[in-house]
């Protein structure tokens, strides 16, 4: 199923007059304040976030899963879903595959489907936190860090497979989320598993094509509840340095202990040229994986402030790979993703409004009150007209959620795929 | 020192045209959406928050204190400071005294000073967490919960003194923050100290004038680091119920364990008619007592959503007593308080914009996406023009911080009071 | 499969001489200190903890599950597993059923199996956090709190069914863990869902037989990640009070926000006569459900100090129903449960060693150092000989884990049940 | 005041028979298990922990301070206090000075006093978190990270002064705890302050004598409540690497976010040869600085397991500098320190009892249950007789707390120094 361009335009027309009013007013205000509105619009329009292939179906918790209807059950259907998202929001121009859930059988066909939606293949993700049917070795006690070489070798080989699959699709980066760790004190020797992990990622690194990057994710806990081998940015950073120039850290917003200052970590990594990937979601308690911006939007804005600063001032850092990494336990996954994409654009737009010169001057004067005013002035601005403008400049919907509903997309998908289709993944 | 009305008006004039533009645009939009803009403006204008008498000087941490210049060193000067705040913001029409730091010597004179600023005396606060010079009994091991009756009696008598002092000033409520607890396992018997506390607050309750309320604050830790007698809302609620109809719980935003859902606690207490007082501040780690809205403004908005709902739907709950309970370690306390007051008004205004009927309908349909949209629509609105409007309707400044600086208030206070004046308090 | 009594005795004989040495030395020491060693032994021998029927198979996380071999696939087999545990440890004399996972088809037969193992049926547990096949209403948006009456009614009826099933087996209590809550701000109206919950539990309470108790569990988050209706002890306590004398709170060690002082909550509830049930587990991050005592054994000891104090001094509180509520992701579930049972006995034994008179005297003197010494003296004592003694006095194993392995129990179970048997449950 | 050797021996004699009984029994048991009891005793006897000069007086919180009597008011008296501690415990053979609180006026005299107590001067500590009277520049907005060069230079110069002072006393290491950070988003530019800090520590490093070490402490928050420049081990490690071989990280137990796995950090740092210093304390909520082992003794044991492993297997890591960094708000500081020292010795002794060969074998087999058993077997052993033995082997007290009280040390100090003496420090 695809979004009909004419229908989309028809719906946009209904909202256009209101949009024009608010955009004109806001644009005018911002111009008076000396903002480069066109430059901001361009940045917003260019900002594209990858959707992971497993996020198009219903998620769940260890206590169960409430299904959703019309889930995509093939890779083509998943790409179609991202296509719908991208058509409406113009912000989801990439998909991030999880292997072995999404191994293409016909690469050419898959690439054509993606191209038809104007979607590229971003970072590919390996999975060594579950045992696959018929796997020779188990990851019950770890994969890249496992005390047994055979398990490590299997996990290394799997990662290299993932690189090869990604390479055929045009991906340029591999994301390693290593769930390895321990549930009980004494279960593993911290130094041995860290050394094993370093050796393993170096092996994978060797197989990395010249123009690829490797992203090393970190997480303090879950699914292991006593220790995790790559528990924090420090460990990830150390491993990336051990591998070489093409290895980077990856920050996932939900992968931190309570109260961590994430924006500071972002700044440190970009200063050192080592922020490679970035996963969006939100959370109140742990790695809750709820809709981006639904719990702590100001924190997201502060993180974007660090990201914007880094993108403008740290040439040593590559342009990061963006991905949404959220779960959809009780919402329609596509609606949830639209809300996440809007929240990301909102935070980005507000961060772009921060007057960096004024801020630097106030910091120099230790005028703490003024510094806060500058940030809050940007944050308190209602930037929705800007985001709408950027979206329609690329042919998207003024109001994606309303349009999605008006177009009866979910009903169409159910019709096409049935009520009981199930997406692979968690 | 007082804010000169003419000067204030002069500064306002410079900002008026911009204010009119933005207000007219926003007001128009909101009216089209069916909002009762005048009703909202009235509520904003009526909303008054008490300033605690000890918050006009520099705060500190256990590692020290960096002083500030021009601090008020008498109660009159403290009231003058609140007067300045109130003149500029029109939101600080009350002061909350801490005894024994602010015992008036001449009640009539003090009341006249306050009246001249249009300031009332809100809840009075007792202090049994420090030993006063020449005190007969020590609170080192507790006050209202102390295992020794003499200490308990002294603390009870002090609270009754505080009531009497407040009574002479026109206060109508007593706030008890009981810091009692223990630093080490085994140090105290949980049941004994809880029973002592219940007995003590009942004694104080007996001395409460008929038209007074008693607020029982709770806090999980600090200054005691193992246990606190009144550690959570459940304990506070239980004690309030044990006392009677005039006893209530008091919620302080910083007094919760990490990740607590405070807005839910607010709703529960108001449903049961037991939310009496409310202390504003913000925090990232613990009871950090930083500027309201500086860390988690969305959380503040959600809490205001609960407050607004309760004020409109829970006649069983009295109108709460509002106070700012923040510390000012590195900012000019008056500027910090202005920022806090603005953040409070902002969260309140946004909560007032939530379409409660639509929200109830979406909740009824379990349309989770729509519920979120409704809240975020309200939150994403730039309500600053509304707040400005409410402020100038009462004679305040369009832009209080800028006005404060343009009027060189701090310089005036330093001139009046000197560089080394020190406020009593923490 | 059953543990062979002769084999067990044979293994015990090998350890007896060492046990006697250590027990005699310790018993002698404790007697010299004035301890009533026989009284302590009797208390230890009498202490029985229920095993939940779903805890005999491998657990998992939302990221997957690593299977275990020889899992029980019928209720009879589950009772057999508890029988093995009880034979070895003499501490697991009860099973706690989860409905609908474990509805007996032949009550008489099931009761005979249990009786043959000397096992009783403790609290029965309802499940309204998952949708059952063919269920008319869904719990996706709540059960007892659901905004839709039909879902609430179904959940109420289910709970009443559970009571009836339990009644036929000799259970005397119902445990309600209500997972209801919301994942996003605005999703539900806090006051409505709380009121619905109060109404629902009152309905269930009406169906409670005269000699039954109802336990209301609380939990701050998971599976819902924004709010949980019964989020803390205060809410549970309020609901229990609203129901009546037979309703109680249930404390699960993993169901608290970070750093909560649980032993204080235990003391408060027992003082008010409202601690009905208690679930053991351990955790480092959230509701990790790992082996009891594996992470914070001193905390468990302090909690037992509160429990022991309450059992001896609070006649207003009934004897609590004990249950282990842990998950077994990477250990043999039976070995894991043995480790949990030993940790419980250890904490209980140490708490019984606390000299309560000395402690009360030191508390009276505010001799904080002494209070700590008294607790630590008890805690630092190696009480393993006492636990062994209590165990063999009832016919259990001196060393249950070693015995379990020596008897090749797991191998026997695999032989009986096969490699791929799967237990119902999570 | 000094402990009288004869009196000490007299008191020991009273406890000797009981000690002998328990020691003989335990020693015998351990020998049978193949433990090298003499080797363990030697390690325990050799283990010496520095006492910070500011920890001999009463501590406080931001809410106040309850004084203590007989506090040392001169550096000589502080050393005398450590001398008393060392005489009784034989574990406190070092003092760690804080500058500018403890600048000696007569170096030779001070060294003689220390030598007379058999006490050496361990790491010296700089203080740039407070403004000293007459200081030219303020640290209100930072010291080594300050945006203003003059403040940075003053802080660098102070650290070099501290090195020079330490050098004259025989210290061989400098500890830098940098409290710098920010209280509000936007207040500082994360990259600028980090770069400033790196430049500043490199300047200090240049002044380090050849045989000295520099320790860089980290802490997530307090006294700054939004960000801290050196917020975690990763940042500290990065800075230490930037300085060179003589720069190391310093771990303080209280300086971590909730639920951090500290023992893993210890292992990582030692593996990389970068754990230079270690500060002991305990906490439940934040940096509570309560008595070592009073809240989480098992966690301390696990950390010691990492330390012992590192000391035995990581020749690349220097022997760490140990210090107690706790506050004494309601206990006699000397009694509190004795309790801390005993808890440290206990955790160390238990960690030494872990059978590392068995553990490695069980880890190799992924026998998680066995791994836990091995750790818990060591932990559950009552090692007090070992510690007593190690202590008396050096001439200390069998029971230091009881001896301290029997000798009426505090009363003697009050007599000598008066009731109102006040120690410099926090």
Describe the structure.
Four copies of one chain form a homotetramer. With 426 residues, chain A is α/β, with parallel strands linked by helices. Chain A has one domain: Divalent-metal-dependent TIM barrel enzymes (TIM Barrel, Alpha-Beta Barrel). Chain A has 15 helices and eleven strands. Chain A has helices at 5-32, 37-46, 75-89, 107-116, 149-169, 190-206, 233-243, 262-271, 297-313, 333-353, 356-364, 368-380, 384-393, 400-406, 409-417; strands at 50-52, 94-96, 120-121, 124-125, 173-176, 181-182, 213-217, 227-228, 247-252, 275-280, 321-324. In chain A, the strands form three sheets. A six-stranded parallel beta sheet of chain A has the order 4-5-7-9-10-11. Chain A has a three-stranded parallel beta sheet with strand order 1-2-3, with helices on one face. In chain A, strands 6-8 form a two-stranded antiparallel ribbon. The longest helix of chain A has 28 residues, at 5-32. The model of chain A has no long low-confidence stretch (mean pLDDT 96). Chains in contact: A-B, A-C, A-D, B-C, B-D, C-D. Chains A and D meet through α6, β8, α7, α8 and α9 of A and α6, β8, α7, α8 and α9 of D. Chains A, B, C, D: This is L-rhamnose isomerase/sugar isomerase. Chains A, B, C, D: One of its GO terms (molecular function) is isomerase activity.
Write the layout of secondary structure elements.
The structure is a homotetramer of 426-residue chains.
Chain A (H helix, E strand, L loop, with lengths): L4 H28 L4 H10 L3 E3 L22 H15 L4 E3 L10 H10 L3 E2 L2 E2 L23 H21 L3 E4 L4 E2 L7 H17 L6 E5 L9 E2 L4 H11 L3 E6 L9 H10 L3 E6 L16 H17 L7 E4 L8 H21 L2 H9 L3 H13 L3 H10 L6 H7 L2 H9 L9
Parallel strand pairs in A: 1-2, 2-3, 4-5, 5-7, 7-9, 9-10, 10-11
Antiparallel strand pairs in A: 6-8
Helix pairs in contact in A: 1-13, 2-13, 3-4, 3-10, 5-6, 8-9, 9-10, 10-12, 11-12
